């Protein structure tokens, strides 16, 4: 098996999920940590016994680096992806891959012409409950899907925004709740139903209005390509990080995601199918437990192209399209046509 060397750009909150995943992978070494904050970066590089770079462009000149993980603020994603692909690296980027449709188009063009692959981290697709929902919908004989309801209520403090001031601003985050937290929920909804044709949404800011320039709460009605309806509500103003509540109502059955477990209600019976409980409690449960799987799938594709099963730029663009459409709908107070397949 080919040995691969990785570098992580950005040593903030999410990077430990990448470090932990890389540690579990035979044949993969964390070779470099990059952070613009040299004090933080040096400390981490010493702990990981790897090289430290303050400037990611210097790291890209390091011919020993094969794979670049991007764990930086959203406004940095596009230029870092383009530079890493141009340097011939493989790239695994945290969501969202860019901040808007224009950036996605530019990145897609670069990815198409680059020798390296670009994968995006949508780890919640790999949760056992998500995988089982897809299987139930494909093979479960549950009849036509009628609707999907999703409720995401998390807690983000003022300190969360002041500690990383890029958060909560259109210029640096591309929005707030929708593009950072709820993008996973929108992605799952469209993934389960197979795309969105139109939506109408509203964003607003209440409890966190003093610390964010963008929304802290949002709701939307969606029409899916398969004819089903979607109801979506999300907020960062709860006082705890509640597990995602999701319900899929089909003609002959209802699937319920409740407290990280998937239930099926059919023929008068409510049966627990599978749960996402962490075996080791390694990651914050609300991030989902799939980083290791998502990163593992991407590396599998690098060593064996026949195993290519990761979220690529096309897939990653779908949820971002929904995020943008909700912002636009809220501004214009009207339905937005999307026509996703
Ligand atoms: N997949 C998930 O569930 C999940 C969860 C949390 C965060 N994320 C994503 O991870 C990314 C990072 O979020 P975070 O919460 O870890 O952010 P953070 O603010 O905690 O950390 C960002 C780090 O990047 C560094 N940085 C900033 N600009 C840089 C530059 N030009 N060069 C090198 N380093 C730079 C900062 O110094 C900081 O250490 C975002 O895209 C976010 O949406 C994903």
TrEMBL record:
GO molecular function, one term: nucleotide binding
GFO/IDH/MocA-like oxidoreductase domain mapped to chain residues: 131-255
All copies of domain Gfo/Idh/MocA-like oxidoreductase N-terminal, residue ranges: 5-120
SUPFAM superfamilies: Glyceraldehyde-3-phosphate dehydrogenase-like, C-terminal domain, NAD(P)-binding Rossmann-fold domains
Protein name: Gfo/Idh/MocA family oxidoreductase
Natural source organism: Lelliottia wanjuensis
Lineage, top ranks: Bacteria, Pseudomonadati, Pseudomonadota, Gammaproteobacteria, Enterobacterales
């Amino acid at each position: 098996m080919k040995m691969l060397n990785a570098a992580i750009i950005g040593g903030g909150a999410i990077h430990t999920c990448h470090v932990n995943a890389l540690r579990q992978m035979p044949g993969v070494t964390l070779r470099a940590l990059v952070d613009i904050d040299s004090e933080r970066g040096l400390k981490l590089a010493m702990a990981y016994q790897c090289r430290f770079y303050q400037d990611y462009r210097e790291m890209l000149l390091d011919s020993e680096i094969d794979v670049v993980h991007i764990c930086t603020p959203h406004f940095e994603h596009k230029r870092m992806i383009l530079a890493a692909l141009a340097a011939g690296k493989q790239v695994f980027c945290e969501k969202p891959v860019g901040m808007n449709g224009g950036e996605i188009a530019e990145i897609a063009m670069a990815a198409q012409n680059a020798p390296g692959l670009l994968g995006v981290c949508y780890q919640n697709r790999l949760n056992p409950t998500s995988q089982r929902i897809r299987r139930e919908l494909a093979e479960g004989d549950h009849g036509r899907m009628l609707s999907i309801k999703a409720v995401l209520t998390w807690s983000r403090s003022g300190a969360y925004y002041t500690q990383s001031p890029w958060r909560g601003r259109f210029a640096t985050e591309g929005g707030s709740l929708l593009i950072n937290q709820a993008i996973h929920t929108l992605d799952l909804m469209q993934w389960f139903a197979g795309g969105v044709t139109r939506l109408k949404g509203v964003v607003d800011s209440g409890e966190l209005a003093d610390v964010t320039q963008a929304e802290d709460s949002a709701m939307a009605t969606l029409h899916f390509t398969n004819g089903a309806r979607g109801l979506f509500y999300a907020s960062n103003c709860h006082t705890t990080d509640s597990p995602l509540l999701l319900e899929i109502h089909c003609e002959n059955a209802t699937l319920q995601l409740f407290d990280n477990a998937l239930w099926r209600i059919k023929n008068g019976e409510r049966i627990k199918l599978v749960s996402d409980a962490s075996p080791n409690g390694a990651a914050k449960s609300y991030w989902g437990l799939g980083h290791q799987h998502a990163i593992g799938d991407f590396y599998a594709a690098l060593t064996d192209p026949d195993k290519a099963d990761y979220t690529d730029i096309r897939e990653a663009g779908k949820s971002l399209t929904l995020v943008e459409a909700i912002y636009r709908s809220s501004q214009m107070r009207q339905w937005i046509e999307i026509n996703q397949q």
